[in-house]
């Protein structure tokens, strides 16, 4: 762990005590692999519902995730309102920490239209676009999109 990170940890230890310790262990075992913590309270598609509270799910994601993934599609228990609440939770959780410590939020959904992408990016750092066509739009939007194609044809 670098001296800068150690100093940040000491200054903000009351909020993020095990985040760096966990990530150090993670790096030793998995290298630079990124852990995306998906906060999914339910899946209406399958009928599954998490036995844990939203607060516990969000706190766990904030403590251990390199990134935090939030669904925006109602089929997976998500919405843009839920994304806004998740942003507020992350901002509050990291209110005393410098910006480089805060994990980015990924808005996970289909986001097929530019309007949906822009709405997602109002609260998220990145958005996932699942589509048959590559996303189009302004550079400020495109450089914050992760694209999952339906096929490579």
Please explain how this structure is put together.
The strands form two sheets. This protein has a five-stranded parallel β-sheet with strand order 1-4-5-6-7, covered by helices on one side. With 153 residues, the protein is an alpha/beta fold. Helix 4 (80-93) links the parallel strand 4 and strand 5. The protein starts with a helix and ends with a strand. The model has no long low-confidence stretch (mean pLDDT 83). The longest helix has 14 residues, at 80-93. The protein has helices spanning 3-11, 19-30, 54-64, 80-93, 114-123, 139-142; strands spanning 36-39, 42-43, 48-49, 67-71, 105-108, 126-131, 145-149. It is built from six helices and seven strands. It is globular. Helix 4 (80-93) packs parallel to helix 5 (114-123).
Number of strands: 7
SSE pattern: HHEEEHEHEHEHE
Q: Strands across the major sheet, in which order?
A: 1-4-5-6-7
Q: How many angstroms does the end-to-end distance come to?
A: 44 Å
What percent of the residues sit in helical stretches (DSSP H or I)?
25-40%
Largest sheet: 5 strands, parallel
- Mean model confidence by pLDDT: 83
Count of helix runs = 6
Radius of gyration: 17 Å
Structural class: alpha/beta
Strand content: 15-25%
Indicate the low-confidence ranges by residue numbers: none
Shape: globular
A few lines on this structure:
Helices cover 39% and strands 18% of the residues. The protein has 153 residues and is α/β, with parallel strands linked by helices. Helix 4 (80-93) packs parallel to helix 5.
């Amino acid at each position: 762990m670098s001296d800068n990170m150690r100093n940040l940890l000491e200054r903000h230890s009351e909020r993020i005590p095990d985040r760096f310790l966990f990530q150090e262990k993670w790096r030793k075992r998995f290298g630079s692999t990124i852990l995306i913590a998906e906060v999914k309270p339910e899946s209406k598609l399958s009928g599954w519902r998490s036995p844990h509270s939203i607060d516990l799910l969000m706190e766990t994601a904030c403590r251990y995730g390199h990134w935090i993934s939030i669904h925006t599609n109602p089929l997976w228990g998500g919405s843009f309102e839920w994304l806004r609440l998740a942003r507020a939770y992350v901002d509050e959780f990291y209110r005393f920490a410098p910006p480089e410590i805060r994990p980015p939020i990924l808005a996970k959904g289909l986001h097929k239209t530019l309007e949906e992408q822009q709405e997602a990016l109002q609260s998220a750092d990145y958005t996932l676009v699942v589509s048959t066509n590559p996303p189009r739009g302004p550079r400020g939007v495109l450089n914050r999109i992760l694209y999952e194609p339906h096929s490579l044809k």
